[in-house]
Request: fold
Amino acid sequence: MAQSTNSRPRTASRVAAVQALFQADQGGDNPETVIDQFVRHRLGNAEGQDGFEDGRIPDAEVKLFSRIVREAVRRQDAIDPMLIEALPDDWPLARIDPVLRALMRAGVAELSMPDGPPAKVVINEYLDIARGFFTGPEPGLANAVLDRLARTLRASDF
Reply:
């Protein structure tokens, strides 16, 4: 990801969650194994390192990161049909870039948390993350899908 999440621990947590969901999905790995790998090897600063070297995410909050990953995996059977319904017909979920798919699953998982931040905060955070990964139409698609689903999942926020 090109942009820095320095001193934005909640954003860093979300970036890590997207990466972990991508890794679990692509590798067929158990999400708990991926969470453990991230906590041990990717989150926080390693001795002698200061920042994002070797794919590290130094400022991530482990609790938020873990909660998003677990919620996205636990609710994937409910999240994916919501995404399919919200996506345009010419963007089938199975053909969406796997990073974008992981990002949208993380966003919907977080929007599904009744004690989470306001919906507009969640949408803006994932839009910023999408812009860090993509330069084409993907951020706009993520924004539209998350906004549409937020209006159902968090109607009281609007």
